[in-house]
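Hey,

The postdoc asked me to send both predictions to you directly instead of through the lab channel. I've kept everything plain text so nothing gets mangled by the mail client. Protein one:
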Amino acid sequence: MNSQSPWGLPGRGLRAVRGYPRRAPLTLAYVCLLLAGHAWLGYGLSADRAAGVLGRLSTNVDNLRDHPVSALLGSALFFDGTLTDVTSTDFVGTFITLGLGVCCFLAWAEHRWGKRRAVAVFLGGHVAATLLTAVVITVALRHGWYPAAVRQSLDYGVSYGAQTVLAIGTLALPRRGRLPWAVFVLAWPVGGAEWAGPLPDFTTVGHLTAAALGFGLLGVPAFRRRRARAAGRPSPAGGFGPHRGSVAEPTSPAAGTTTPPPA
């Protein structure tokens, strides 16, 4: 019996990294865009100008009322966190949302379902969770649970979309790991929550809403099937490619048989 090579696991990891651009090209391009945007804000602009850009793209209640499309789409071009202060809680959030959510599980979704469905899950979670959270904020303001200043709060980043992908990515795990993962997805936003009356802060509400959307998609049949990757492989819905019982390829006579003479 051959012993397992000590380079087996690193080798698989290296092959996964080398195959990443082929399996998830759109995710890779998006990650590069996020990193470029982060560098631009941090090093290409002054602090005042960077604050102005983020203030314009923030998905707070006032911006969603005045310019909803640019706020919703623009806020998804940046991530809120740090890549350098590895001992901070902000880095933990960056690792979960950008590292696990976007780099890992969005890439998995793109490879499993294709670009369109992956974008639909991520962007749909980002938009839907943001709008539903805005409704919660409006109700909370009426009841005095949130301060009035929350209407202009700075709220941007990829975390709602990443949270949706983290939730639906439960399918990527073995069955015995799915329940602990689901608990983690729901628990990590609550760990640093600040409570105002009966509600946590609005970002925690948004993350929990995004997770609920992702878990809800687990019951949709279209997201429980893999896409057909090969052109000649029939898809689950009977897509392109040869089917059993179509046109048979010509074969040579089997050994031990004779061909009848022509009439």
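Protein two:
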Amino acid sequence: MRHLFLILLCGFLYADSFILDIGQTFKESYHKAKSYKQSDNKPKLVIIMDDIQNLAQYNALRNIKLPITPSIFPKTAYTPDTPKIATYAKEYMIHLPLEALNFYQKELEPLTTGISRDSLLAYMKNLKADFPNLKYLNNHTGSKFTTSYNDMQNLISVFDELDLRFIDSVTNTDIASPKIAREQGRLIMQRDIFLDTIAQKEHTDRQIDLAIKKAKDKGYAIAICHPFPSTIEALKNAKDKLTKEVDLIGPAQLESYLHTQNITLYNRSKFHFAQNH
């Protein structure tokens, strides 16, 4: 019995030490991110990493050691632990599954066209309960939902009610958000470029260069990527280039910058066809 007690005690001590080590690591990461200073003289670039669903993916992102914003899946039966990831992230988004034109991902429970505003409001209130610090969301799939003017109006009005912001991932060339933005004279930020429509490092290398170019051309840009090993490697290799040539910031910083520049309508860039996937 005495031996069993000693074994259990050692196990608890090891677990405490492990938890403290993780806590210290995240604390150090937080302070490094906090010390990052925005430069008014550099073009602004936001990089969002979509599809984050577990701590291993978040750790891989964090280990790039660049201020890249994770976009985390909502809590579902398929992704039950995602609220825990948000407790470690200084800044995060929710990657909101919306109805697509050509396929349905039952596990992620996408919001479908025709959903009532009351149902949207109830859903988003539950989402905020799981993610108390939530501010920004972008769409996962959504090529059908984001082209529906009425559904997008309802969604954005619910976001307004709950003090949330939408960044359109632009999964369809006929999205409704630019029309709503023009009619309401409001800023709705949009994805300018995907970095990894092809999950190959060489492709992502070129896309990173294109993202930097567009940020330089118009002063700002938003890029979206995914937690592919090839993407992680490409971003690590591009760290010095990104740090030197652009001001890599989060969505809140970009929104603040655009407002200071009196930019009320997001000017989405159009590269070549690969960016419209």
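Summary for protein two, as requested: Strands lie at 44-52, 69-72, 93-98, 136-141, 165-168, 189-190, 193-194, 220-225, 247-249.

Thanks,
C.
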